[in-house]
Design a protein that fits this description.
The complex is a heterodimer of chains A (about 675) and B (about 260). By secondary structure, chain A is mostly helical. Chain A is built from 30 helices and four strands. Chain A has five domains: about 160 residues, no CATH class; about 70 residues, no CATH class; about 220 residues, no CATH class; about 70 residues; about 30 residues, no CATH class. The mean pLDDT of chain B is about 90. Helix content of chain B is about 35%, strand content about 25%. The longest helix of chain B is centred in the middle third of the chain and has 18 residues. Classes of the chains: A mainly alpha (about 675), B alpha/beta (about 260).
Chain lengths: ~675, ~260
Amino acid sequence: MTTTLPRATRGLDIDRRKVIVGGLLAGSVASFLSAIGMVETFDERMIIDPILSLGYAALVWIPVLFGYRVSQRVALEGMEAPRVGAGNVLAGALVGAIGGGMLGLFAVLVDAVNVRNVLLNVTPALVDLLSFHQPVAVGALLLVAVGAALGALGGVAHLFNPRVKSAIVSGVAWILLFSFTELVFGDIFDDLGMLSVDRLIYAADRGLTLGAALVIFGGAALGSLRFKGRASGAVARFQAMPEEKRRSRAFYFAAAVMLAGLLLPSVFGSYLNEVLATVGLFMLMGIGLNVVVGFAGLLDLGYVAFFAVGAYTTAVLTSPLSPNIAPEMAFFEALPFVLLMAALAGLVVGTPVIRMRGDYLAIVTLAFGEIARLLFQADWLKGTFGGAQGILRIGKGSIHTYFGYVVVASGVVALLVGFLRWREGRRLDRIGGPARLPGNSTPGLGITIMAGGLGAIVFGLLFPSFATWTVTGIDSEAVFRMVMVFVAIAAFVSWRLQDSRVGRAWMAMREDEQVAESMGINVVTAKLLAFVIGAMLASLGGALFAVKIGTIFPASFKIVQSIIILVIVIVGGMGSLRGVAIGALVLIGILGGPTQTGLLREFQEYKLLLYGVILVYMMLQRPEGLLPSARRSRELHQEEFLQDAWIKTQEGAAAVAEVAAEEAEEER
Amino acid sequence: MPLLEISGLAKQFGGLKALGGVDFTIDEGEIVSVIGPNGAGKTTFFNTISGMYPPDSGVILFEGEDIAGLTPDRIAKRGISRTYQNVRLFPNMTVLENVMVAQHCRTSRGVFSALFQTPAFLREEEEIRQRGKEVLGFFGTRLTGYRFDQPAFVLSYANRRRLEIARAMAAQPRLLLLDEPTAGMNPRETRELTGLIGKLRSERGFTVVVIEHDMRVVRDVSDRVVVLDHGVKIAEGTYEEVSSNDDVITAYLGRPAGEGSS
């Protein structure tokens, strides 16, 4: 039997309320971005040389996006699927027109009334820019027209099929990527001796040439059409692999990334290396904070204190200019003391807050972060930490790495570990049966590790020049390599701990502290351990930061640092190592750290605004983060997971049958 | 020497006297039920034994040593382990992880062996895993197989109760405290669990104290029944003795009535 479904909307039927609200929102966002000076600042940067500057680009997306969203019709279950057609375009155009009109009105208003006392950035130049260098009245009308056209474009997008849509999006994304990374590519082409390619792609006064833009757009769009779905297919296949295979794949992938990280810096050019070193520093601290917040569930808002302890301990121990105590150690001699001090700091902060939870813990740790900064700044301790002037010439500008010795020593360790693994593998083989499980030792694994160790020893002895490899703070390439090594160590530590008795205890504590305690977990030790390990990882970051910059001031350790590290962890995905890595890459790499620039130098001034926008968006749309751990996404989507577990899997069906059988028996 | 010997246990919350000097003993291998009307202090009794609150006064001798006032993790390590009236699992951990984490106090490998995954560490992990699976096997196939890797929140209510008992067993205690293990179960599940409580002693050698409202369960499992009311022990004895005790009937029904089987 078929019934006529209630009709959703007719072709040209437009939801007037949605259009007006959408248009006003678009207009507000556009006026806001103009008023804070973003448009004018960005106008100096070209994206596609003669036609589009970053300033206009900052406005163009608004009517398109709002037009798209407002004209979108939601298909409701049980309703006839909404037809797409002229109605979408009209709605989009109206949204764009209202938005453009509002921005035009804004331009006319600020032209007539001088508001520069309040809004510094509203300059005549901005008005000129907004009205396309025409008289204001004409410009306002033009804005309405342009807005309508762009909004209509957003509406038209609904007429395309999804593949075409995503092809267009990826084309635009690649143009933006190439344009934003202009400096980086310039450096890389320079290093590779391919300056002619650089000239071909980028116009003389910055920005892509029109031809290059078209080629990039075409290439990306075609690529997207051709390869759409391949990536997610690969991910699905990876997830379908058995545990053992997945582990080894993940290991090889990590190894490849590490190798690339060690080799690529030589072609990256100094700017990219500088940015990546900053990314690495924040990744290191993100990994550390992830142990505290993600694993153990202790919301620490004063994490920067440990970063500061690491930096100051390094400074005092290595700098010849450190006021009272100046043993002038080498970086690696100082490192054990740095770790020790950080562990002590972890205990000092951790002990008083043992019995606190949630909000209270957050507030107290926030205070500890500030206390640490004020102590380093205090006149009282000026004799040790240099007060507000800080400490200069940290590490005398360079790090002797003893790289060759480290290689030989780790080779020896690997030989030993490999031997133990080999013996264990042999033992397990003899026992056989259930003991032989994925992740356990095999004789083959032992031999592989031993071979690696032998290789490292030979390498270290053959190239003695590595024994005295020295990194100077200004050599961003070498600094980046150093940072990578430390990130790898931190990632290794937190990865190994996650799947251990200690990691499970943290997990249980995060879930229900009281029950964890009555199941025999000593929460005092577990919490202190989380604090200490987190503190030690942060201090590694601090030590590297100090030598990299060469000078530290108390002002480098403000609360905003703690917050940004936390934002990295949250946006990336709490409790997930990959997530933290991605979070640091996206936030620090593109937008930059609190004082360091990222790839988008122009965003420097508006960074905190963007952090805020990203954080709000993520909390609303994807609270589990970009690459969440399985556990965390289950936790935040319990309902969906339950349904999936119940309906989709065979087990669910079996369970349904089981309950039905039970009920039947009950009735009898 | 009794396994657990409690004398004069008292606990007060503000003006409310939750426990007013309770004496209680249990010998190795006994199953004892604690019953009483709502608010009688049964759960507080468990909470003070397991260390969630320190008692105001009284002595709790476990294997001859006073454990009153120790922290819950110490008490768990000594060999007392419990379940909760309102099931408290670690909902986002898998079924297997729930029983693995309970073995925390019976294992010892720390940070360094975890970092280098020493053979001893791997061996211990394997033992923890195997013991976890073995304990889950106590409930037949209900918590095994594909269930191992399901998060605990997916489980049905009855399975959550079972998992909670399994988790308590995994801690390898000598004394198990079960707080209303059959609450919310249907009659069939209750019958099954009643049998299992008996097996906890006969097959696993646990000594069990059980808080229970279902009198059929109490009758079937317990060697001895202790009745609490307003924080005071009002009766103790076999099920038959207790169920015909006038004080008990008064406590439950509020007036002396002739024929009283609850």
